[in-house]
Specification:
The chain is of the alpha+beta class and 514 residues long. The protein contains 18 helices and 23 strands. The protein has 3 domains: 274 residues, BirA Bifunctional Protein, domain 2, CATH 3.30.930; 110 residues, Herpes Virus-1; 102 residues, Rossmann fold, CATH 3.40.50.800. The strands form 7 sheets. Strands 3-9-10-16-13-12-11 form a 7-stranded mixed β-sheet. A 5-stranded mixed β-sheet has the order 20-19-21-22-23, with helices on both faces.
Length: 514
């Protein structure tokens, strides 16, 4: 755990030092769980969003995108169940006065047990070498089996208690597991209470006539209330999807772990409207498609896993998370949910407007069912950034810090250096910049020795460094250095665009999904 915490601190520090993420309003001591994306962070975030949008909207002829407003009629949230049911279980420690999500305390307890399982697996793998059978070990090692049984029984009980809103049993579980306050070590807990996560605001010129509104806690409802508008104006036939990205707001009890859980965040969601009775088939298809999208970025299949929900939301008949191995353990990155016809039926009921689809093949109207894919853009950013940050020991015994971002997502694709700041080399370098910048985000750097410039761009995540030297004047070639391998090759200036394009083109990366 200490190593995990140390690694995570390095991620947070690197994100600030290299212009990826800043604490919001830092000069005023910041605002808890609110962050600003800096110059490089804004580019990385934009690239992730575009990578998702191309895969979801541009490459699917039956999915379209919208951009719904953040402010919605307040009845929207009554119909969706958020006013009555959008709660988290809150618990306070009487001695430390710290507040926690009761379910997260239990999940963190489980994560520690899972960490013990991983340690046992690692030790056994070293002991048995090439003959090690992980699946057999997990199934037969008594200590590991006991750990796994503890994990399963704990999560099942937590899920059942939350589903039944049995908050007394949630507290009893915390006490039985002897979970202590992470800050003080105290086990002196209050009762568990429900806490609504929505931010309230007002619409109107005067306090007397102002309407109570909410900042949206999710982007999905903007899609549901526009279902019929999109279907009719786009002449869409079922099955079809509506996608959007946008801000959402949740008054989290305990917002922590950097940008993993924030009060203002961004979602990338798609609601896929289908014929009732086909939801299981589509649910499995979208699970497979979404995992392929993640794996196309090359961040390691071992870093992903599916987790089926023990507790289903009130609108779902099936739900699974794609979990990613963050520096603090496996956590939810994306959710795939079979939402049945709950949302459209509820909005139809509360609005008094029919939200149905006329199926010409069956010659009847029905309320479509929905399969949802929902990914946190900020969490995806953190997954990419944390997974890419590495320290490597080089052959000469030195180390380098390198941010091995997938080249397709890197904020800057290439940095161009003149070897020295004279003899016409800066002018040639700037000519190369002027040519490449129409196709790629590139930068010019002439400060410090070339070796130090390489290290700076390694830490910044730039896939290519291009050095202009005196040979360039003679034969119009440059040295291009590859970030990941540190290999260098001599290429013609005229070949640069094609070389970089081959490495960063979204089409090349997304075709891995096929």
């Amino acid at each position: 755990m200490a190593k995990q915490e140390d690694d995570f601190k390095k991620v947070i520090s690197h994100a600030k030092e290299y212009g990826y993420v800043f604490q919001s309003s830092e000069i005023y001591d910041g605002l808890s769980a609110v962050y600003d994306y800096a110059q490089n962070g804004a580019e990385l975030k934009k690239n992730i969003q575009e990578y998702w949008w191309k895969a979801m909207v541009q490459l699917n002829d039956n999915i379209v995108g919208i951009d719904a407003a953040i402010l919605m009629h307040p009845t929207t949230w009554k119909a969706s169940g958020h006013v009555d049911a959008f709660n988290d279980p809150l618990i306070d420690n009487k001695d430390s006065k710290k507040r926690y999500r009761a379910d997260v305390l239990v999940e963190d307890y489980v994560a520690k047990i899972e960490g013990k399982i991983e340690k046992e697996v690692t030790k056994a793998a070293k002991r048995f070498g090439d003959s090690f059978d992980k699946e057999q070990f997990l199934a037969t090692n008594q200590r590991v089996v006991e750990y796994q049984e503890k994990v399963t029984s704990t999560l099942k009980r937590l899920g059942k208690s939350l589903e039944n809103e049995d908050l007394v049993d949630v507290k009893a579980l915390i006490e039985e597991l002897e979970i202590a306050c992470p800050m003080s070590g105290s086990k002196n807990w209050t009762d568990v209470k429900q806490f609504n996560l929505m931010f309230g605001t007002k619409l109107g010129a005067s306090a007397d006539s102002a309407m109570d509104l909410y900042l949206r806690p999710e982007t999905a409802q903007g899609i549901f209330v526009n279902f019929l508008n999109v279907q009719k104006s786009g002449r869409m036939k079922i099955p079809f999807g509506i996608a959007q990205t946008g801000k959402a707001f949740r008054n989290e009890i305990v917002a922590r772990q950097f940008i993993f859980r924030m009060r203002e965040f961004e979602q990338m969601e798609m609601q896929f409207f289908i014929k009732p009775g086909t939801q299981k088939e589509w649910y499995e298809q979208w699970k497979e498609k979404r995992m392929k999208w993640h794996l196309s970025l090359g961040m390691g299949q071992e870093n992903y896993r599916f987790h089926d929900h023990d507790k289903l939301a009130h609108y779902a008949d099936a739900a699974a998370d794609i979990e990613f191995r963050f520096p603090f353990g496996f956590k939810e990155l994306e959710g795939i949910h079979s939402r049945t016809d709950f949302d459209l039926s509820k909005h139809q009921e509360f609005s008094g407007k029919k939200l149905q689809y006329f199926d010409t093949e069956e010659n009847k109207n029905y309320v479509p069912y929905v399969v949802e894919t929902s990914i946190g853009l900020d969490r995806m950013f953190l997954a990419v950034f944390a997974n890419s940050l590495q320290e490597e020991e080089l052959e000469n015994g030195s180390t380098r810090t390198v941010l091995k971002l997938p080249a397709v997502l890197a904020p800057t694709k290439a940095a161009v250096f003149p070897l020295v700041k004279k003899d016409g080399l800066p002018e040639i370098a700037k000519e190369i910049i002027d040519d490449l910048k129409w196709d790629f985000n590139v930068l010019y750097d002439e400060k410090d020795a070339v070796g130090r410039r390489y290290r700076r761009q390694d830490a910044n995540g730039t896939p290519f460094c291009i050095t202009v030297d005196h040979q360039t004047i003679e034969d119009k070639t440059v040295t291009i250095r590859h970030r990941d391998s540190m290999n260098q090759e001599r290429v013609a200036i005229s070949a640069l665009k094609e070389l970089i394009h081959a490495a960063v083109d979204m089409k090349t990366w997304l075709m891995k999904m096929a």
